[in-house]
Each structure stands twice: as structure tokens, then as C-alpha cells.
Amino acid sequence: MDNLLWIHSKRSGKIGIFLVALLAATWVLVPFLWAIINSFKTLEATFSAGSIIPFLNFQPTLDSWKEVLDDPQSINSLISSALVAAGTTVLVLILGTPAAYSLARFEFPWQSKDIALWFLSQRVMPPVVVLVPFYILMVQLRLIDTWSGLILLYSTFNLAFCVVIMRDIFRDVSKEVEEAARIEGANLWQIFWMIALPLSLDGLIVTGIIVFAFSWNEALFSSALTSQHASTLPAYILASRSTRGVNFNVAAVNTIIAIAPPVIMSFFVQRYLARGLSFGAVKG
Amino acid sequence: MEPANKAQRNSERLFKYAMLGPAVLWVIAFTFFPIFSALNYSFSNYVLGRGITSYVGFKNYLLALGDAGFWHSLLITLVYVGIAVPLEVCIGFVFAWIITVGLPGKGLFRSILTAPLFTMEVAIGYLGVTLFTSEGGLVSALLNLVHIQIPWMSTGEGGLAAAILLDVWQWTPFVFLMALAALGSIPDEIYDAAMLEASSHWQVLRHVALPLAWPVLTVAILLRLIEGLKSFGLPFALTSGGPGTSTQLFSIMNYLVTIQFFDFGRGSAMGILYLVMVSVIITVFFQQMRKRID
Amino acid sequence: MAIVALENVSKRYGEIIAVQDFNLTTKDGEFVVLVGPSGCGKTTTMRMIAGLEVITAGSIKIGGQNVVGMIPRERDVAMVFQNYALFPHMNVFGNMAFGLRLRKLPKRQIEEQVQRAAKILGIESLLLRKPKELSGGQRQRVALGRAIVREPRVFLMDEPLSNIDAKLRVEMRAEIVKLQRRLGVTTFYVTHDQVEALSMGERVVVMLDGRVQQVGTPKELYNSPTNRFVAGFIGSPAMNFVRARIGKNGVATAGPDFELLLPASLGEKVARLHLEEVLVGIRPEHLKIQRDGTGKSKNVIRARVEVIEPQGSTTIIQFSAGGDSHLIALINEQFEAEPGSPLTLSVASEAIYLFDPATDRSVQ
């Protein structure tokens, strides 16, 4: 957008702004680059922070990558993370999307806004408050250290988000189009399944990705409710931090593996991101 | 009403409740149950392996309220949120403004600046150790160049500052993204009209952009506040709450009390107290913000 | 193909009356236009026929079968929407085949029926395109195609041409009428545009505030409107209304410059109704310029030109006729005059309409 503000800026102002932006980009990128560089260093090389240019300052090596990827514990937690996050995403979408559609389209004895607010209020509660009850519940259900246990929990935490944001997205589907489908002979379920859902696919994908990221990144319950089998990446990282200390090169590899999937996914869905993350407060 | 109409309405009613039902039941089951059950534990003496052995009234609450660690964690949490959130809001908004004003390469900057959003907090905290530690940490090394030495990892203040910096790194993009959307939804004509009247960017920012984006910023602040008060992974991975208990935010402290020491009664009581405090803070804040918007 | 019969159909939203006692029985294959200003209940009426709105009272029969309480699917009607309402995620074929697929017709039959409908509308080459790749006119055709492909008993069209540019609209009007004649399907067509209503409808229903004002052929509506609203709504520019006193000898007077001699039949009726005041209605196109007359005859208006609006071959003259009566004349020639200059206009006495000012009803 070439707006008047930019055109009428002084040259010095423009340069200043550009420098600030560059500085910001650097600030954001440095930790990523730091992790990437360290991941190719040997443990000894990581002690000299100044050597950052590969081949010139240090000899890049894949040793730390091999070390992490050969470790059954880290591979196991990677698989756990993927399964739990994917399972949560699917369950949340299956439960939340129909509810969101129902709230978006039909009238209820109470205001649809109120129930959306109620769903939203679930988010205020600090998870640690319900750590004990969930811990005991999981013990009783024999779901401690299982994937299903975590999926069940994470679905609970993310369901509200899915309902609120998908309700907002379904509201954008033209009512006229749904009526046309009705005239053509579709019943309520067919309208939802064949018209509303395909038309909201973008929003659905973004919602799914955000839910995936939330579950992928969750640390508190994963640490508390898993030990070996179902331990996800955050729990694995916290555990290895306290038992093995921090080796820069291994830490770097773990960091990259841990943050890459959601970050890469988010690049594909820039469009609805602001809207999704703000619970629909922003029409992005 | 004719019977046939009724049948049609009934099928609609069946459909809407059948669609809504599972999610509502799920949330009721898995949020009401734990809160009530947390309340229950908070009034009881819970022994691992034997369950609730007796009810002890407010003993757990009194223990919690008399616990210096509890108050300390509240203070630490407030400091953490009180510094990180305002920083994130200011920086995020200013960057959104810079991009909106028409910086070349907008799309690229946008993508770069939003990259930290979905990063795993634990991983960032973990990576943070390698950034801030005095033995080979990048930040420490850079500061050494200008002969500044900050004891990031060896003191409580340093650890908290490092955690806040990382929190700002991770969450400023959230405010940025929302502010960007808010500023972008203001029609160009309004900027153009404002530019004809105003003498500087600053005036347009102050008198046009900020007021128009304020409702969205409010939501951003609110959401950051909610999430900030729940912070766990990033500071815990960075400092493990240490040295000592100096960087134990509430969630970390409560987690340790509950899981490492298995003191379920006291942990639950602390959790309930915290929930009440958080609810009050959020509600008051929300009402204040709403007043200012109206 | 079916006769549609609406009896005392009413719709209320709480206290608000959207449609009150709508009565109409179509002929088989008739083209009925519902026309009126926005909010008059025409769209609600159509949606009740479609089954998108539940009726509050009355009955609707399609082909002799009471359809109240039936879902749209069971009514076997097709509808064309104002914004086309095409399914954006399906291509043209998918849009047209949607209803047939839901009815589980064999694949080959669906293919055949869609091809046939597409051929009728000339959109065979567009079948694989998505709606967003089509122009407005093409989308309109696809919407029509989706309606005709199922061979429903009734077509419902809700302002289908309001989003198309003016030139294409005139073409599409003719095309829809031709298509409807060819298929012979009973059709309801909603519009707010009286020109569209007159040019398309076999019968036109004029509505206001949820009530039917008049039902008739376009000619009947134009020639004998039953009340002031219909008279003013049908015809463009709109009819002039002047409040006048009835004098002796059946002369209607509104000031010294406006004296009209009523035809004998009208004069009698006015006398029978004991009306002292009437609203005189004159269509702008019935006013003629009197060049030689000095105003001897009783059917002239001595006017003062206010604004001249050349329309090409015709001219619209806004003028005042003493007092605060401001009228419009549509003259079938090019005409120039300075504002303020005097002008004499005449009107044939058969072309004078009278309305009772108390009830707005036509005096006929």
C-alpha cells in the first residue's frame, strides 16, 4: 500500500523506519539462526559463541543431529507429540465444528453470544488449577502416561477455542447459499456437510493448525501426566534439561525439531491467523 | 400451528441440539468436574495411595495464605506479566504501524515478525539457556564485547529479566498481528484525510490510528494478560524456577508443590485462590477497558 | 406444472405483520409478478411458497396438494436468488446437478438432464468452470439452469435481475419470459421495479405493507388502478396528484389555473358519493401542450415552467399550476422553454383519474 503517509515522509524518516524494521527482523531471527548454527557444531565448538560462520570459524557436523535422532527417547517423544497433537486436532474439530455451526445458525432459548462467552471463559482458567483433579482422574481411568489421556485433556482445553472461532467463520457463509441448497432438497445435515463446511474449509484448516500448535506446545500436563511412554517433546525437553543439563548443540537440535512443525504450518495460513488467534475479534 | 409445521420444527430442534450437545457435555464434564473436584481436594487431607482421608476445613487455605512461597510466586507473576505485556503491546503496535505506513517489503517483514508465534515455549526457554548463560551464551558474549556483564542465570532478577525478554520475543508478534489487522481495516481514505489535517506521523498515529485500533488492542491486551498469568513452560525451561525459588511464577510453584511434593490439598487450595484472583483481575480489567471504549 | 393457490396466507413476526391475507390462484403455467416497494411482503410471500418461512395462517396449495408444513424438498419448487446463491465450491455442472444428486438419480440421467438444461441456456461450454470465473450474466444463467434442470412444478424468482447492469437486464428479462413460456412452468417473480413487472408478468400483484393492493394484468393495472398507491406506483414518471374541489357542473377545480371538466360517468359517481373534494390523478404522458388554445375549454391547465429535462426524443417538464401544485408532464417531442415562462397543457377527460381523499380509493 503506497499511502499518503509513506509518500509524504521525509527521506530520513523513511530510512529510520527501515532501520527499525531491520533491527526488529534481526531480533526475531537471531535465536533461530543461533539454534541452527549450534546444531551443526560439536559440543566443544559451542563454547566459543563468537564462531558463527560455518567452515571458517568451525567445522559443521551432523553429529548432534545423529545423537538426537538415534536417541529412542527423543524419537519416541517426537512420535508422541505428533500423535497427540493430531489426535487432539481431529477430536476437537469433530466435536467443536458441529457445535459452532449450530450456534452460528440457529436460535436458542439463551443468547448464542452468551454461550460463546461461556466457552471463552474456559480459557481464563490457569491449567495448573485443575492439575490435581485431572491427575487423579487420569490415575483412576488408568490413562496416566498414555496418548489417549493427553488427547482427552488437550481436547478439553481447545474445544472452547474451536467453537468460538468456527462459529465466527460459519457466520460468514451466505445464508442465501444455504437456502438455495435447502430448496434443492438438502436436509440440515447435508447443508452443513456439503455446503457450509466446504465453504469454511480455510477457516477450518487454520483452526486445526492453531489447535495442533497448542497441543504440540503444551508442557504442564505433559510433564505431570506422562513419564516414559507418552512423554511429548516439551516433557522430554524439560526432563532432559534437569537430568542431563544443557548441551548447546543437542539443545539446538531439540529446539529446532520442537518448533519447526507448527511454525512451518503457520506460514501457510497467514490469512486467518489474526482472526483465529483473537477469537474472531479481528477480521483479518 | 399445524402439526406438520411442528414436525419440521422438531427436526430442526433435534438437529441443533444434537450438533451442539456433545461439545457442551464435554466441556461441562471436563471443566466443571475438575473445578468442583479441586474445591473438594482443597478442603481435604489427601494422602497418596489412600485418597481423601479426612476433611480439614480451611486448613489448606490457611497454610497457603501463610506460605511465603505462595505470596512470592504471586509477586513474581505480577512482575513478569506487568513488564512483559505492556512491552509486547507497545512494540507490537509500533511495528504494526510501521508496516501499515507503507514500508517496502511488507509481506516479508510480516512473515518474519510473526515467526515466533507458534514456537514451543519450553523449547524457547531451553534455547534461552544457551543464549543467556555466561559460559558461551550469545547474549552474554555480545554484552561482553561492550564490557557489560549481567548475571542472567545466576540471580533471580537476571533470570526473570531473561524470561521476560524471551516472552516479549515470542508474544510481541501476537499483538503485532492483531494490530496489523486492526490498522489494515481502517480505510485508506481515513489516513488520507488525516494526513491532510495532521502535521506529522505522530499526530496521525496518536489521534487517528490508536483510537480506531484501540478496541482490538484491548482484546489483544486481555488475551495476553490471560495467557501471561498462565505462563509456565518458558520460564520453567529457562530457569527451573531457580536459583532457589527466585523465579517461581505461580504455575511453576504450584506445579512443584503438587507434583513433586504430592501435597494435593495445599496445591488445590492455592490453585483455587489463584483462580479467584485471576478472575477478579481479568474482570476488573475488562470492565475498565470497556468503559474506556464506550 | 401446477396451479398454485394461496388462501388467506399471513405471516407475523411477533407483533409485526409481514403479510396479511394474501389470496391468489394462478393458472397453470402462469407468470405472476409480485411487485411493491421494499418491505411490502413480496419476498416473504415467495419464501412462504418455497417453504423457507413457516406461515402463520392460511393455506398454500401446489397442484391441489396442501404444502403447508412440507419442507422445501417435498414441495418440488425451484428458486432463483437475488445474489444467484451459486455454490462457490462447485463448478457449474456440480451446481446444476446438486438437486438431482440429492434425489439419487442415476448418473447418466443426471448427465443428460444437466446437458439439456445447459443447452437451453447456452452454457454448455461453462460446465467445468467455478462460479467466480463467470460474469454476472453467466452466473445468472447458471442460477436459472439450476432451477430448470430439476423440472420443478413451480419456479420462484427473487429479484433475479437486480444485480445485473442495465443493458443486460433488458435482454435477460426477455430471455426469462421466453424460457418460461417454453417450459410452461408456473412462475412467481418478485421485483421492486414496476417496469420489469409490467413487461414480464401475465398477471401482476401489487403489494404494500403486507397487503395485496391489486391483482391484474399489466394493462388493467395501468388503466384502472384501484387506489392511489397503485396509480402512483405503476407508470413512469409517476402519476400527478392534485387536490381539487368539485364544483357545479362536474368541474374539478384547484385554483384559477386548474379546472378540469370531468366525464359524465365520473361526475355521476362523485355526486353519488357526495364528495366535495377529490384527488385528481393525471399521468404525465397524458398531458399535451396546447399551442393555439387560449384556455377556453375546461380541460386545460395554465402552467408555469419550472424545470425542463430533455430526455432525447421526449421531454419532461416540471411545472406549477398555481398554488403549490407541482406537476410533471412527459411530452413526446423535443421542447425548450425558459423557467418561469407560461405554458398551457391539456388532458383528455377520459384520461382523468379520481381518488377519494379520505380512503385513497379510486372513483371509477
Protein topology:
The complex is a heterotrimer of chains A (284), B (294) and C (364).
Chain A lengths: L3 H4 L3 H29 L23 H8 L1 H34 L6 H10 L9 H10 L6 H24 L4 H9 L4 H12 L1 H17 L2 H6 L7 H12 L3 H21 L1 H8 L7
Chain B lengths: L2 H40 L1 E4 L3 E5 L3 H7 L2 H33 L5 H9 L6 H12 L5 H8 L10 H29 L3 H10 L3 H28 L4 H7 L10 H11 L3 H30 L1
Antiparallel strand pairs in B: 1-2
Helix pairs in contact in B: 1-12, 2-12, 3-7, 3-9, 3-11, 5-7, 5-10, 7-9, 7-10, 8-9, 9-12, 11-12
Chain C lengths: L3 E10 L2 E10 L5 E5 L6 H9 L6 E6 L2 E2 L5 H4 L1 E4 L11 H11 L4 H15 L14 H13 L5 E5 L7 H18 L2 E6 L2 H7 L2 E6 L2 E6 L1 H6 L4 H6 L6 E7 L4 E3 L4 E4 L2 H9 L4 E6 L4 E3 L10 E11 L4 E6 L5 E6 L10 E6 L4 E4 L6 E2 L1
Parallel strand pairs in C: 3-8, 3-9, 6-7, 7-8
Antiparallel strand pairs in C: 1-2, 1-4, 4-5, 9-10, 11-12, 11-14, 12-13, 13-16, 14-20, 15-19, 16-17, 16-19, 17-18, 20-21
Task: Compute the CA-based radius of gyration of chain A.
Answer: 23 Å
- Biggest sheet character of chain B: 2 strands, antiparallel
Oligomer: heterotrimer
The largest sheet of chain A is:
none
List unreliable stretches of 5+ residues of chain A: none
Provide the residue-averaged pLDDT of chain A: 84
Q: Please, how many domains of chain B?
A: 2
What does this structure look like?
The complex is a heterotrimer of chains A (284), B (294) and C (364). Chain A has 14 helices and no strands. Chain A has 284 residues and is mainly α. Chain A is globular, with a radius of gyration of 23 Å. Chain B is mainly α and 294 residues long. Chain B is 76% helix and 3% strand. Chain B contains 12 helices and 2 strands; from the N terminus they run H-E-E-H-H-H-H-H-H-H-H-H-H-H. Chain B has a two-stranded antiparallel ribbon with strand order 1-2. Chain B starts with a helix and ends with a helix. The relative contact order of chain B is 0.13. Chain C has 364 residues and is an alpha+beta fold. Chain C folds into 2 domains: 230 residues, Rossmann fold; 124 residues, OB fold (Dihydrolipoamide Acetyltransferase, E2P), CATH 2.40.50. In chain C, 27% of the residues lie in helices and 32% in strands. In chain C, the strands form 3 sheets. In chain C, strands 11, 12, 13, 14, 15, 16, 17, 18, 19, 20 and 21 form an 11-stranded antiparallel β-sheet that branches. In chain C, strands 6-7-8-3-9-10 form a 6-stranded mixed β-sheet, sandwiched between helices. In chain C, strands 2-1-4-5 form a 4-stranded antiparallel β-sheet, with helices on one face. In chain C, strand 12 and strand 13 form a beta hairpin. The longest helix of chain C is centred in the middle third of the chain and has 18 residues. Chain C is elongated, with a radius of gyration of 25 Å. The chains are: A mainly alpha (284), B mainly alpha (294), C alpha+beta (364). Chains in contact: A-B, A-C, B-C. The interface between A and B is large, with 106 and 102 residues.
